From TrEMBL:
Protein name: D-alanine--D-alanine ligase
Extent of the signal sequence: none
InterPro entries given in the database record: ATP-grasp, ATP_grasp_subdomain_1, D-Ala_lig_Van_CS, D_ala_D_ala, Dala_Dala_lig_C, Dala_Dala_lig_N, PreATP-grasp_dom_sf
Chief location category: cytoplasm
Length: 311
């Protein structure tokens, strides 16, 4: 084992995966990878899908702690965290408040703005737009926007819009996923992600895709997406981005482990995008990639996250 912790000290571990969110397919892959790593290290780990088993069985079946590999609603938004606290079950990652805030892109941006952290201009929409209102929003946000459901992950429901008709349609689609929609100024530039494990900020990863943006297909299906770690930034710029990321992570009350996404526009300005408190742990995932660049193997990464589990 790579940590100074005997596998037996973790007790019986439930790897929570699947769930009922739109991100269920990715969660199943993340959870399986985490489970395989724990088993390889001799941990008494078991797969547990809350969509198929009542949570009370965690106590009835004698589990000692939970590794949350659930993505999206019900797993990453504070709901599961609150349920586990009620059960008295130590769990990985952010607590209830940090999970809930980070899941909400709108409130995350509002907190960042209040702390003078850099993030793109935006509008909040809660109903369908006619083309006249859409045109006004486009004009206010420099003519191009990205539309995002407020509380979905994995780029689900996201779309770019450069015309009033496109924006109106994109908002209608996004409202199918969430009652509030974030319409954010489109940023031309490079996209980066910064993983945080405990108090350690890992090397920055740069993503490059021929898609218009780093969407669901680019993340999980495309073979043309490229990842760079080292990311190509100067040492000074990478350190500056890591500082922003750590501040952004703490600002929403996130802890344990997670990932902050950001972009740098064509003028060299940073823009924080969002915080992921339960990032993917698949073969294409970014936190394991950043950890590897730091000399931390996948199994050690999983053990570090599990060792920090608490109520």
């Amino acid at each position: 084992m790579t940590l100074n912790v005997a596998a037996e000290q973790f007790g019986k571990v439930a790897v929570l995966l699947g769930g009922r969110s739109a991100e269920r397919p990715v969660s199943l892959k993340s959870g399986q990878a985490v489970y395989n790593a724990l088993i390889s290290e001799g941990v008494d780990a078991h797969l547990f899908d809350p969509a198929e088993q009542p949570l009370q069985q965690l106590k009835e079946q004698g589990f000692d702690r939970a590794f949350i590999a659930l993505h999206g609603r019900g797993g990453e938004d504070g709901v599961m965290q609150g349920a586990l606290e009620w059960l008295g079950m130590p769990y990985t990652g952010s607590r209830v408040l940090g999970s809930a805030l980070a899941m909400d892109k709108i409130r995350t941006k509002q907190i960042w703005q209040s702390m003078n952290l850099p993030t793109a201009g935006y509008h909040i929409i809660s109903e369908s737009l006619d083309e006249a209102d859409a045109a006004d929003i486009l004009s206010a946000l420099s003519g191009a926007v990205i539309v995002k459901p407020a509380c979905e992950g994995s780029s689900i429901g996201m779309a770019k819009a450069t015309t009033a008709a496109q924006l109106s349609e994109a908002v209608s689609e996004a409202l199918k996923f969430d009652p509030q929609v974030l319409v954010e100024r489109w940023i031309e530039g490079e996209e980066f992600t910064i993983a945080i494990v405990g108090d350690e900020v890992l090397p920055v990863v740069r993503m490059q895709t021929p898609h218009e943006f780093y969407d669901y297909e680019a993340k999980y299906q495309s073979k043309t997406t490229q990842y760079f770690c080292p990311c190509g930034l100067s040492e000074q710029d990478e350190k500056a981005l890591q500082v922003y990321a750590k501040e952004a992570f703490k600002a929403v009350g996130a802890e344990g482990w997670g990932r902050v996404d950001a972009m740098r526009d064509d003028h060299g300005q940073w823009h924080l995008l969002e915080v992921n408190t339960v990032p993917g742990m698949t073969e294409k995932s970014l936190v394991p990639m950043a950890a590897k660049a730091k000399g931390i193997g996948f199994s050690e990464l999983v053990l570090r996250i599990l060792a920090a589990a608490k109520i």
